Amino acid sequence: MGGLDALLAAVVIGFALKSYFAKVKLPHGVRFPPGPASLPIVGNALSVDVSAPWATYKAWGSEFGDLVYTRLFGQDNIIINSEEIARDLLENRSHNYSDRPELATNELFGIDWTTAFLRYGSRWRLQRKIIQQSFRQDVVPDFRPIQVAKSHELLLNMLEDPLGYPKHFEMLAGSVIMSTVYSYQAARRDDDMIERATMALELSMKEMRPEVVAVFSAFPSLLRLPSWLPGMYLKRVAPLVKRLMSESLEYPFMWTERGLNAGSVSSCMVVDHLLKLDESDSNTASQKVAIKEAAATVFGAGTETTASVLMNFMLAMILYPQIQEKAHKLVESVVGTNRLPTFQDRSSLPYVDAILRECLRWRPVFPLAIMHSAVESDVYKGYYIPKGATITPNVWAMCHNEEKYPNASEFNPDRFLNPDGTLTDDTVSVVWGFGRRICPGRHLAEVSLWSAMVGLLSVFKFSKAKDETGREIEIEPHWHGGLSVRPMPFPCNITARDESMDITALERLIRVSV
How far apart (Å, rounded) are the C-alpha atoms in residues 158 and 494? Predict the structure, then answer.
């Protein structure tokens, strides 16, 4: 096995040397942004904490500034640690920074069609237009009945099976998307369509760790090596991921298309856009493909974000019981105990919105966003940004900026409230991305999150689990992931605030609240 390791190392070194000696010639009078000294071949890769690269990047920001230059296996990487610079470049100069880097792993995993990863061009613009039209802020209120119904199903699932909370959060997120995108009404529990799509998403997000993607993107020829070689686990798992991603792309779309022909589906993203197609138009086939790809993208992005934020929410409620207790009292003072909260109560419950915003900030689901790429070379405040450079917005650093968020590691919803109890103007928008690449489904996701959180707070109490002696089991939070990050399941105790609450009582409460 040692000989195989040596062979793989030799291949990597050979490719790296070629890239390393292809030096960039800087224009006169400019220089790269400051950054850590790099090693030959690997650049700064060995200095990065692969379990939390955002933390390394934030530390570099403290030393070198908010714009940091690094090299990763011969690739230029510009790290942005401040919101101000991110907006200057990714929004004010969006024409130059709305591209994505070419990632060899996208094709390997069968996600090269995904709107979020597409290069900047006509294919991306068409998909983006489809999604934006379906989930504009003024359209999102139309989906509230669906979101309320699915949040009520979440409450029933939590009461029946408290320890299955990770799956219940995924089911909530996935069922809202499946309904609004495909007019598919998922089963309350164990829905095959959602479970298969979620499995594909989890595998792809897990394997797309930044350090792994960097290696194979720098040296795509490595993907031609046999999958049995050490270090090629990515290639071994890729066929399964690719098959599952293909199924999640094709199956829901085919279900809706058949339903449209049979007249058995109602208005939704796919149906509405299919009905707009002109069969006499020569571009109909490509437009149909764009609808299918945009729809599958919405499922992936919406499910991962919503489920992960709800995991953070429940963890925070357990770690900070005084915040949970305050929220309980406020919800009960507005809603009472004879019904569940509705959207009409939202303006009277700013503290729940503050909790939502703090969940987004405290542990951003996409701590490094999704990388951008420079279309052309640029100069920013005297610093040179080469064409094709990967631009990495360190959302984690922006959300943990001590000047803006004192004691940033602490979970504190009050930071989003004015002295009079109203919400501040800070919506933590950086967690949704920047410029032309900002998440187009953010308005839908944010409403789903509020509905789920306020419902959970009205019905349940979250606390630490206890061992056989009755002693509380301390939680040591761990987050895992690749491109996205979520808490690992943790021991906890989930009980109804009303000790007499059972499924029949909860169903009655739901009926009077609709």
Answer: 8
- List own/partner pairs for 427-432 with CB under 8 A and 24 or more apart: 427/357, 428/357, 428/360, 428/361, 428/399, 430/83, 430/86, 430/364, 430/393, 430/395, 430/398, 430/399, 431/360, 431/361, 431/364, 431/365, 431/366, 431/395, 431/399
Kindly state the tokens that stand for 498. Answer: 């009303």
Q: For 2-513, which CATH class?
A: mainly alpha
φ and ψ at residue 291, rounded to 5 degrees: -60, -45
Residue 369's SS3 state is coil
* Inter-residue contact 308 to 365 (CB < 8 Å): yes
Q: Answer whether 297's CB lies under 8 Å from 311's CB.
A: no
How many Cβ atoms from other residues are within 10 Å of residue 292's Cβ? 23
User: Tens digits of per-residue pLDDT, 6-17?
Assistant: 444 544 555 554
> Are 107 and 380 spatial neighbours (Cβ–Cβ below 8 Å)?
no
Question: Which helix (H) or strand (E) element contains residue 23?
Answer: none
Can you give the pTM of this predicted structure?
0.91
Of 53-57, 168-172, 278-282, which range is least confident? 278-282
Using DSSP's 3-state secondary structure scheme, residue 250 falls into helix
Domain ranges of the chain: 2-513
**Distance (Å) of CA 357 to CA 65, 204, 237, 309, 337:** 27, 27, 36, 10, 26
240-252 core/surface letters (b: 16 or more CB in 10 A; e: else): ebbebbebbbebb
Q: What is the pLDDT of residues 273-317, one digit of tens each?
A: 999 997 767 788 899 999 999 999 999 888 889 999 999 999 999
Query: What one-character-per-residue DSSP string does 302-365 give?
Result: HHHHHHHHHHHHHHHHHH-HHHHHHHHHHHHHHH-SSS---GGGGGG-HHHHHHHHHHHHHS-S
